[in-house]
Amino acid sequence: MEHIYYPSHDGVTTIHACIWKPEGEIKGVVQIIHGMSEYAERYAPFAEFLNKQGYLVCADDHLGHGQSVVSNIELGYFNKQRDVDIVLSDIRALNLAVKKQTEGKPYFVLGHSMGSFICRKYISLYGKEFSGAVIMGTGFKDPFTLTFALCAVRINALFCGWKHRSKFLTKLAFGSYNKKFKPARTQNDWLSKNAENVDNYENDKLCGFTFTNNGYNFLFTIIKQACSNKVLDLTPKKLPVYFVAGAMDPVGDYGKGVIKARDKFIKYAVKDVTMTLYDDCRHEILNDDCKQQVMDDVLAFFEKHSGDNNG
Fold first, then answer.
1. Cα-flanking dihedrals φ and ψ of residue 15, to 5°?
2. Cα dist. 88→10, 62, 120, 228, 287 in Å?
3. Long-range contacts: 202-209, Cβ < 8 Å, 24+?
4. Sign of the C-alpha dihedral, residues 139, 113, 43, 13?
5. How would you label 58-76 residue by residue, b for 16+ Cβ within 10 Å and e otherwise?
6. Quick one: angle between helices 114-126 and 213-226, nearest 10?
7. How many angstroms separate the CA atoms of 108 and 133, rounded?
8. What's CA 269's distance to the chain center, in Å?
9. Which residues on adjacent β-strands are paired with residue 18?
């Protein structure tokens, strides 16, 4: 694994990214967009699996995450401009740098959780350049719910500041996620039925941190944009899109939100939309008991579409 660093479009931060290269010839490229309160290097086992199949894998640590922070105080804080497009531009910078190095090889993008919503916005802007997109651990929220959530964030920030970490907002966002898994062993049982994975997440200082008001503003804004008709309308109609999620994932409303997102893509005439829901699996399907099947299925999607040109 290679570590690289480049300037963020916030004008202040240095972004950290990982690149995993196969030993032999590069067959294709997969860019991963990680989720909330985690970081790029957690995807190393999946990246190494893809390396063995000839794929180069890259992923950045978003602002407020991983090694793209100077101190833990910055975890869960994106940028003072409260601008979603800065994060998209940082992802784009890695995209262009790797694309230049790989000389026109098939290029895929995969977004997990928060990253799935970022990915949905990203492909509406640059989807014609990709051979396919994997939307992992996603869901669908109506604009009224998200408008209410954003109002709550801004009111909280008005009184407590944008760097404040609100227990109320955390409960609003995630308070119901463990309900189906009682008696819950930890606050994060909803992530995975695999207890070792949950423990690893809880013991990792770069995982599970509480977002600031600034962070929640980013989260609810990107979800609202990703679920909007505008983004759906701009998504390239020839881009193959593969939805994958745990059937017991509360982020996807136990499958219902994933199905709704998929159906929205179909409604907006995206021609090649497929979906797999993994029975009895929760949110982090690349770390849950179904992980090998997930990796095999996602690889099959890449292999199937490696010759596609969506421009």
1. -85, 135
2. 11, 9, 11, 17, 26
3. 205/72, 206/38, 206/39, 206/65, 206/66, 206/75, 207/37, 207/38, 207/39, 207/42, 208/37, 209/37, 209/72, 209/75, 209/76
4. positive
5. bbbbbbbbbbbbeeeebbb
6. 50
7. 6
8. 23
9. 3, 59
Question: How many CB atoms are closer than 10 A to CB 264?
Answer: 19
* pLDDT, tens only, 266-300: 999 999 999 999 999 999 999 999 999 999 999 99
The secondary structure of residue 117, as a DSSP letter, is: H
pTM attached to this predicted model: 0.97
pLDDT at 126 over 70: yes
- Indicate if the pLDDT at residue 95 is higher than 80: yes
**Secondary structure of the chain: what % helix, strand, coil (to 5)?**
45, 15, 40
The rounded distance, in Å, linking the Cα atoms of 284 and 193 is 9
CB 5 within 8 A of CB 17: yes
140, 257 contact by CB (below 8 A): yes
How far from 213 is each of 158, 238, 283, CA to CA, in Å?
10, 37, 24
Tokens of 145: 């719910």
Rounded distance, CA 74 to CA 209, Å? 11
Length of the chain equals 311
Helix, coil or strand: residue 56:
strand
276: which strand partners? 244
Instruction: Give CA–CA dist 35/23, Å, rounded.
Output: 28
Q: What are phi and psi of 102, to 5 degrees?
A: -105, 5
Q: Which residues share a beta bridge with 244?
A: 136, 276
Q: Cα-atom radius of gyration of the chain, to the nearest Å? A: 18
Sign of CA dihedral 190, 195, 198, 202: positive
* Residues facing residue 5 across a β-bridge: 16
